[in-house]
Design brief:
about 140 residues; alpha/beta; four-stranded mixed sheet
Length: about 140
């Protein structure tokens, strides 16, 4: 029994944080439980490096992709296809602004914060539709 426990502990230590990585499921919906239209649920995720985000098309005609310019330096951009579930593992700490490309102007956005981070000064540097900006600002209040 002690040998099994020691072996398990050693394996977990060798595997590092990946042994404890979480997977967050985010639904892409036409209408949220609060009545808001065109939403990601949840709209904000606080993750750790190595965690995975699984985007699920709860309703048709949605995708999830990182918005150009709204990702940490050194992070790779990602984009899922419309109507398809996909996963992304985030290893670079920072703030990721995610949009549904077909519904971006309608404010379908979410924020993923990886690690203990602050909002980058240049987060809103590019053109951001008013409704999307208002939702991003509300989500960033979670940091």
């Amino acid at each position: 029994m002690i040998r099994t426990l020691a072996t398990s502990l050693a394996l977990a230590t060798l595997m590092g944080t990946s042994a404890f990585a979480e997977t967050f499921e985010v639904q892409m919906l036409n209408k949220g439980s609060d009545g808001e239209r065109m939403v990601f649920d949840p709209a904000f995720v606080q993750a750790a490096p190595g965690d995975t985000i699984r985007f699920v098309a709860g309703d048709k005609s949605h995708n999830a992709e990182v918005n150009k310019g709204m990702l940490p330096e050194g992070a790779e951009a990602f984009a899922g296809k419309v109507n398809e579930e996909f996963e992304v593992t985030l290893d670079v700490e920072g703030v990721y602004g995610v949009i549904c490309k077909p519904h971006y102007a309608m404010g379908m956005v979410m924020t993923i914060a990886v690690g203990d981070v602050d909002v980058p000064a240049d987060f809103f540097e590019g053109r951001v539709p008013p409704k999307a900006k208002a939702r991003f600002e509300a989500q960033l209040g979670n940091l």
